[in-house]
């Protein structure tokens, strides 16, 4: 079943009175419109269990940051980006901070012209406004010239957007999954490849080979990407950059900033400024 969990915002109620509502998206996805959307608010720490959609799914965090998990990898969605998931891709959502999210669902016959792989795409000011307009349509079923044009333009924008480095490949190998889960749980963990190989009763050479075969990247590269991606939520919460660097396993502010710039093409402070501009 196509589902969406929405955390109801109840400012004047106690936490115990906060309601979690379950919405069936089957009706929305059966709309005559090629492109439809929804708006959802999630509280910090909320998890949306694994589910899938018949349509292609574009997930955008208008406020906050979302983590999307699928068999093929992990993605982070800051306000400058959106995750594209192909039709029928099983995934779950996690919210490190409070998030205002917008979901766009693109009919299967239209989605075939979009990226063949799940990925993160840049959200330009135009794409942001298109997502917002479609997600807030009062009628997600009646076709009109405006709804058709909005959908067509959004799809055209998606075709031209570059992919962004907010993707963390996830291994299928159970032992390598064990390693990745432990490191993702504690980004500052400094356990070396030699140590992991010893724990798993294999040679270091075998560990390196199996890790790269299962993830597509080296152990060192994967850990660096994981640390940098894990640090984004702290940055957006206003944590001082030096504290973010140390919590992410870096020895200094400068070492963290250098790695951050190589991965994302800007400094940590510029990333925060750009994200705040999008809000």
From TrEMBL:
InterPro entries membership: AraC-bd (IPR003313), Homeodomain-like_sf (IPR009057), HTH_AraC (IPR018060), HTH_AraC-typ_CS (IPR018062), RmlC-like_jellyroll (IPR014710), RmlC_Cupin_sf (IPR011051)
Entry keyword rRNA processing: no
Keywords: DNA-binding, Transcription, Transcription regulation
Coiled-coil zones: none
One of the Pfam families matching this protein, by short name: AraC_binding
UniProt domain HTH araC/xylS-type: residue ranges: 177-274
Record's protein name: AraC-like DNA-binding protein
């Amino acid at each position: 079943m196509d589902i969406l969990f929405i955390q109801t915002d109840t400012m004047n109620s106690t936490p115990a009175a906060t309601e979690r509502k379950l919405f069936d998206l089957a009706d929305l996805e059966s709309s005559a419109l090629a492109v439809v959307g929804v708006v959802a608010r999630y509280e910090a720490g909320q998890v949306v269990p694994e589910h899938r959609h018949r349509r292609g799914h574009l997930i955008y965090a208008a406020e906050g940051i979302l983590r999307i998990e699928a068999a093929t990898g992990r993605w982070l969605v800051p306000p400058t980006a959106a995750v594209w998931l192909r039709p029928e891709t099983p995934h779950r959502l996690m919210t490190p901070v409070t998030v205002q999210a917008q979901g766009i669902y693109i009919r299967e016959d239209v989605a075939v012209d979009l990226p063949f792989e799940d990925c993160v795409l840049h959200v330009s000011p135009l794409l942001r406004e298109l997502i917002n307009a479609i997600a807030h349509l009062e009628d997600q079923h009646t076709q009109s010239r405006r709804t058709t044009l909005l959908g067509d333009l959004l799809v055209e924008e998606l075709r031209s957007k570059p992919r962004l480095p907010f993707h963390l490949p996830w291994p299928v190998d159970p032992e390598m999954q064990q390693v990745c889960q432990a490191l993702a749980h504690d980004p500052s963990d400094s356990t070396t490849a030699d140590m992991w190989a010893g724990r798993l009763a294999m040679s270091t050479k075998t560990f390196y080979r199996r890790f790269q075969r299962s993830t597509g990247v080296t152990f060192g590269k994967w850990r660096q990407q994981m640390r940098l991606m894990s640090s984004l939520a702290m940055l957006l919460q206003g944590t001082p950059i030096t504290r973010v660097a140390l919590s992410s396993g870096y020895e200094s502010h400068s070492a963290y900033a250098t790695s951050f710039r190589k991965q994302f093409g800007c400094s940590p402070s510029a990333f925060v400024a750009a994200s705040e501009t999008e809000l």
